[in-house]
Amino acid sequence: MRESLSHQAVKGVMWSAVERFSVQGIQFVLSIIIARLVLPSEYGLIAMLGIFLAIAQTFVDSGFSNALIQKKDRTEVDYSTVFYFNIFIALVVYGMLFISAPYISSFYREPELTTVTRWAGLNVVLNGFSIVQRAKLTIRVDFKTQAKASLMAVIVSGLIGVLLAYRGYGVWALVFQTLSSSLLNTLLLWMFARWLPLLCFSWESFKSLFSFGSKLLLSGLLHTIYINLYSLVIGRRYSAMDVGFYNRASQFSGFPSTNIVGIITRAIYPLQCEMQDDDERLNTSFIQYLRMSCYIIFPLMTVLGVLAEPLVRLLLTDKWFLSSELLSILCFAYMWYPVMVINNQILNVKGRSDYFLKAEIIKKVVAIAILCATLPFGVRVLCWGIVLYNFFDMGIIIYYSRKVISTGYREQARNIVPLFMLSTVMGALIYMSRQFLLDSLLCQLIVGCMVAFVSYVLFGFLFQVREFQRLLVSLKKFR
Questions:
Q1: What is the pTM of this model?
Q2: Cα separation of 71 and 360, whole Å?
Q3: Would you give the DSSP letter of residue 376?
Q4: Comparing C-alpha atoms, which of 320, 332, 313 is closest to residue 253?
Q5: SS (H, E, C) 381-447
Q6: Residues 387, 391, 396, 397, Cα dihedral to 10°
Q7: What is the pLDDT of residues 119-169, one digit of tens each?
Q8: H or E segment and range at residue 61
Q9: List of E strands, 221-292
Q10: pLDDT digits (tens, 9 = 90+) for 64-94
């Protein structure tokens, strides 16, 4: 069984990576093209809606997806119950968005947002129809099928977005790109998953799943509100252009960390749930995936942070230049994302969503205090506040995770600090290489990436980093 789960983990991570990076990679390229065709203020309009759309989507899922995956004896009745509940909530939430649209527009003093909100909100309904299909595929560790659906959807919707942006539709290019992506992805998941709900709804099943999922819902709401709160307060206190700069920096900095950590955690979550009663194996896998995630994320965020200015100026043109400094700061914040997420996930694996919720409440009280303290000093200081919050986040979540596994502060620090030091040295080498190439942005990028790659491989061999060897072995196993 151990070999079987190990093989499943490797295959799951690899296909999850294929889905994320094929989809996100294409989406990333298309977003750069669209960003060159629209104004930062037009991007800002969509970012202003982020908190409302994200909260709506969190309500639709309600934590039921994780509850289905975590439950060992799930039935078709469970799946059908979740499906009908998701659709009902999606329609209710969209109705609330539709009615609230004029008030959202008035809050930001942007008249166009009324119509934009009502159209963009349809994504919530479309996504509600595919949550169970995606959960079933995840339980089967079938990320290959999810990759097919996501890839086809993002290519078609991306081309639609680029065409509309080229023809001067501005913010509407972004709205219809996301709508077409949600619609196509949902249709394809229905085709590929080959699952239809039963004509039944079980209150017993609902109560069982909701007892676990409701705490995740509350935790998810707190986290979603916090993540999107910055776009809201920046848009209210400053301008749509400032929101555009912040949002673009946040998306760039979050791209490597959230996607790679998402790849790993999504693939190992159903497998860790299978070993939730074996503490020794669970603790071993926790350390293994914590180190592996940090070994990958630390250097990537270091490279992105050091090379932020030439990257932004080359890809997005000089009109986005002001977002490069914000990007460098946020890269340091997102560097610690794997530590937070993997500690969070272990609480779900052990079924302790109560600890998850308690930790989230404490973290968000701290987060709001930091936000209020930094808000008067501008967007740059707000970003440094996010860095500070991430250290508090790690401290709080580790306090709760050590209640369910034997790995606490000292053990986790012992495993990740050496990896951080290697990345710091690599970052210093990249920074020094830039000083000799100040006249050429392209050369700064190329030489900086070459220095990063060579030092990454060299350090892996010299210091015999076991994660480096595991990456090589995992790549060989993936067929």
A1: 0.65
A2: 22
A3: G
A4: 332
A5: HHHHHHHHHHHHHHHHHHHHHCCCCCCCHHHHHHHHHHHHHHHHHHHHHHHHHHHCCCCCHHHHHHH
A6: 80
A7: 988 988 998 898 888 888 877 767 778 778 888 888 898 888 888 888 888
A8: helix 50-61
A9: none
A10: 777 777 676 778 888 888 889 888 988 998 9
